[in-house]
């Protein structure tokens, strides 16, 4: 049974509920550990169609203060769902100094590393951007994993979030690409680097709610991770109270099908392990 959700958001970015409401949902779902991982602000030039940069920057201090208060109250009562203070960071190739400063700005329990941008293009923004050929898609897939490897090599992060999110709007073409020997070799190399960096890989139910309608990561990807002994963490990527712990029984069965029986989390950057 999965009792830890390590990827969640609030109304301080593009979520729908306050930190207190999200925590209450975690307790109602029977979770034992809840990780707040609000987005970190991005620099100008990295912009979505429905941008939340100003909202996030205006309320970052509120987020930090409210999560700290929830964490302290939970810590005073071990019977309650405990709280971890995290954040999700976009790895931006041309903005390493910005990302590094943001990732070291607070005493985080853990840091999620994500790739949402290739250059300044937010590839998970618009479906119409992916009305392109197989060849063009494969160029983007290779660029994504090259960027993913740089994110890992930075040494800044504990968990790699939604590892194959690049499939979001082009899942059939992604699976065609992933079946190729050189693609499998690229992903295998990236996963080995992730393991050797002391990171874990997220298994997320968010993809089930997205156009790809598939768990992150896909079965081929998870099989490679299991063969390499990559630690895994579980997440819903919840943006509202109804999504906290979403489809966790399905995630547990999915992971067990590949021989995975242990999940990890991080407290003050230290990996913890437990069977699920």
From TrEMBL:
Record's superkingdom? Bacteria
- A single MF term (Gene Ontology): histidinol-phosphatase activity
Its annotated pathway?
A: Amino-acid biosynthesis; L-histidine biosynthesis; L-histidine from 5-phospho-alpha-D-ribose 1-diphosphate: step 8/9
Keyword Iron-sulfur listed? The answer is: no
Which GO BP terms apply? L-histidine biosynthetic process
Q: Where is the PHP domain?
A: 5-205
Q: What is its EC number?
A: 3.1.3.15
> Is Oxidoreductase among the key words of this record?
no
- This protein's UniProt keywords: Amino-acid biosynthesis, Histidine biosynthesis, Hydrolase
One GO cellular component, as annotated: cytoplasm
Q: Which reaction does it catalyse?
A: L-histidinol phosphate + H2O = L-histidinol + phosphate
Q: Which InterPro entries match?
A: Histidinol_P_phosphatase_HisJ (IPR010140), PHP_dom (IPR004013), Pol/histidinol_Pase-like (IPR016195)
In terms of NCBIfam families, this protein maps to: hisJ_fam
The record's comment on protein family reads:
Belongs to the PHP hydrolase family. HisK subfamily.
Full protein name: Histidinol-phosphatase
